[in-house]
Automatic annotation (TrEMBL):
Family, as annotated: Belongs to the peptidase S58 family.
Organism in which the protein naturally occurs: Paracoccus versutus (Thiobacillus versutus)
Name of this protein: D-aminopeptidase
PANTHER family in UniProt: BLR5678 PROTEIN, D-AMINOPEPTIDASE
GO molecular function: aminopeptidase activity
Length: 327
């Protein structure tokens, strides 16, 4: 397993990512777009998710492909970023075809960033505009850290952010991850700067500090954020041909990466969610063994992406938490 050429989710050919941010708002939106509709599944393991159109991703539901996925700040207000993306896709002629009508299918998920020091006293919801701007910015290269939906993200100790990573497997399959890290838990061990995700680091992609030591026996972590202020949301992607049932399983396996990189994770107060998508470009090299390997790769890649999001966060005036780079 090695990183792709960009070490971004867009190493999965046919995928693009766009970011939009509002520094006064201290929030933003991120969009994953495919050249064509892609198959999608999802899994939720947090107790407080905020989502749109996830029910149609179940394997027994009619729609087999989605046009885009949206990750956004803004709590429930941020779900409106999907509206801006839907409007933009409609203008492009994209969407599920029903007779002469096309309906863009745009599931989304949000993080809570309403108490991060930004100006939230808006007259009109800003998130549709942020979603549309993120869609229009979509490309193969995009910034990490304090960008897009990670603009105002925070964690237990460090400023959070937008992370991404990729892995190329020996069988020719690519796996990528995209994540907004806004967790109740900690991404580093104790008072150190060592990432919990260190065992899965490739090279020095998030500092190369090596393995983190364990918490002392019996350690009981206390939340540093108010209950309800958290959530980590992610997308894992592959070019391997998987249907909605296979992608639901892939999203479930990828949640292990969240648990490896954030301690604690999947709390009642996080909305931890993973979407899994497939472009379907490549057949599974081994239908019996490949799903096992893909699940492992997805978990490892998501853990790396989480650490990279925090590692890349940049300081801005009014920050309520330090950046890892300045720790």
């Amino acid at each position: 397993m090695r990183p792709g050429p960009r070490n971004l989710i867009t190493d999965v050919a046919g995928l693009r990512v766009g970011n939009a941010r509002d520094d006064a708002l201290r929030s933003g939106a991120t969009v994953l777009l495919g050249e064509a509709p892609f198959a999608c599944g999802f899994n939720v393991m947090g107790g407080a998710p905020g989502t749109r159109e996830t029910e149609l991703l179940a394997p027994d539901k009619l729609v087999q492909g989605v046009d885009a996925l949206v990750l956004s700040g803004g709590s429930a207000f941020g779900l409106a970023a999907c509206d801006g993306v839907s409007d933009g896709l409609r203008a492009m002629g994209r969407g599920f075809e029903i007779g002469p009508v096309r309906v863009p299918i745009v599931p989304g998920a949000i993080v809570f960033d309403l108490l991060n020091g930004g100006d939230k006293d808006w007259g009109a919801n800003p998130y549709p505009g942020l979603g549309r701007a993120a869609l229009e910015a979509a490309g193969a290269d995009f910034a990490l850290g304090s960008e897009g939906a990670g603009t105002g993200a925070m964690t237990h100790r460090w400023k959070g952010g937008l992370g991404s990573a990729s892995a190329m497997l020996e069988g020719g399959i690519t796996v990528g991850a995209l994540v907004v890290v806004n967790a109740l838990g900690s991404v580093t061990a104790g008072e150190s700067r060592q990432f919990w995700a260190a065992p899965w680091e490739l090279g020095d992609e998030f500092g190369g500090l090596g393995l983190a030591g364990p918490y002392p026996a019996g350690h009981e972590p206390s939340p540093a954020k108010r209950l309800g202020e958290a959530t980590t949301i992610a997308i894992v992607a592959t070019d391997a041909a998987l249907d909605k049932a296979g992608l639901t399983r892939l999203a479930t396996a990828a949640q292990d990466g969240m648990a490896r990189a954030i301690v604690p994770s999947h709390t009642p107060f996080d909305g931890d969610l993973v979407f899994a998508v497939s472009t379907g470009a490549k057949p599974l090299p081994d239908p019996a063994l490949s799903p096992f390997l893909l699940g492992h790769a997805a978990a490892c890649t998501l853990a790396r992406a989480i650490a990279r999001g925090v590692h890349a966060a940049s300081p801005r005036p009014g920050d309520l938490q330090p950046c890892w780079r300045e720790g």
